[in-house]
Amino acid sequence: MKFFIDTANLDQIKEAQDLGVLDGVTTNPSLMAKEGITGKENIIDHYKKICEIVEGDVSAEVIATNYDDIIKEGEELAKLHSQIVVKVPMIKDGVKAIKYFSDKGIKTNCTLVFSAGQAILAAKAGATYVSPFIGRLDDISTDGLNLIAEIRHIYDNYHFSTEILAASVRHTMHVIDCAKIGADVMTGPLSSIEGLLKHPLTDIGLEKFLADYRKGNS
Ligand code: E4P
C-alpha cells in the first residue's frame, strides 16, 4: 500500500519524507487555507515546493466546477510539474473532465467520493485514483471502511486500473484496516503514519535491552 500524506504543511511533508516511507501528497483547498496559502501565485508556488520535497504524486485540486474551466485549470496545474495529479470533484462536469484528462495522459484523482456508484463512474472515466472519504462517512455514522471493501470488490471484478486511494483517514487503525481490505493507497495526517510505530512492548523491550547493556558496560 502506498502512503500519501494529507496536508499542505511543508514541515510535516518533510518529516514524513525523512521517514523514508512516503509515496506522495494530497492537498485540498481547505488544507491550503489552513496553512495560510492564498492567491493563485502563492498556491502554484506552494505546489512546486511540495514537488521538490517528495518524489511521488502530488494531488492539486481544481476550484472550477464547469467543464471548460476544469479543463483549463487542470491543464495549467498539470504543466507545473510532472508529479502533479489533477484532483477533480465527483460531479458531472468533473467526470467528463476526468475522461478528457485520461485521454490526454494527464493523471487525475477523483475526489469527494462517497458511494460505490460514484467509484464506478470514476473508474469508467479513467481516473488514476479514486478518493473515497472514509472519515467523513464515519462522521455521519456510516461505515467508511465498508465502502473501501465494496469498491475493491467491484474494481477486482472488472480489472479496473484506477487505484483506490482511501482518503479522510483519521487515525492509525484506519491505515491498518485499509491495508487489510486492499486499498492501493491511503492518505492521512502524519500522526496516522507515525502511530504505526507505536507498541508498548517495543518501548519496554528497548528500555530493558539498554538497561542490561548499561549494567555490563558502565
Ligand atoms: C482527500 O484527498 C482529502 O484531502 C482528505 O482526505 C479529506 O480529509 P478530511 O475529511 O479529514 O478533511
Automatic annotation (TrEMBL):
| Ranges annotated as spanning the membrane | none
Keyword terms: Cytoplasm, Pentose shunt, Schiff base, Transferase
* PROSITE patterns tied to this protein: TRANSALDOLASE_1 (PS01054)
Task: Say yes or no: keyword Metal-binding present.
Answer: no
Question: What pathway does the UniProt record associate with this protein?
Answer: Carbohydrate degradation; pentose phosphate pathway; D-glyceraldehyde 3-phosphate and beta-D-fructose 6-phosphate from D-ribose 5-phosphate and D-xylulose 5-phosphate (non-oxidative stage): step 2/3
Q: Does the record's keyword annotation contain Cytoplasm?
A: yes
Active site: residue positions: K87
> Which SUPFAM superfamilies does this entry report, sorted A to Z?
Aldolase
Chief location of this protein?
A: cytoplasm
> What reaction does this enzyme carry out catalytically?
D-sedoheptulose 7-phosphate + D-glyceraldehyde 3-phosphate = D-erythrose 4-phosphate + beta-D-fructose 6-phosphate
Task: Look up the domain of life of the source.
Answer: Bacteria
Subcellular location, record wording:
Cytoplasm
* Enzyme Commission (EC) number: 2.2.1.2
* Pfam annotation, one family: TAL_FSA
Family annotation (CDD domains): Transaldolase_FSA
Class of this enzyme: transferase
UniProt similarity note: Belongs to the transaldolase family. Type 3B subfamily.
Role description: Transaldolase is important for the balance of metabolites in the pentose-phosphate pathway.
PANTHER family on file:
FRUCTOSE-6-PHOSPHATE ALDOLASE 1-RELATED, TRANSALDOLASE
| Record's protein name | Probable transaldolase
Supply the source organism for this entry. Answer: Mesonia mobilis
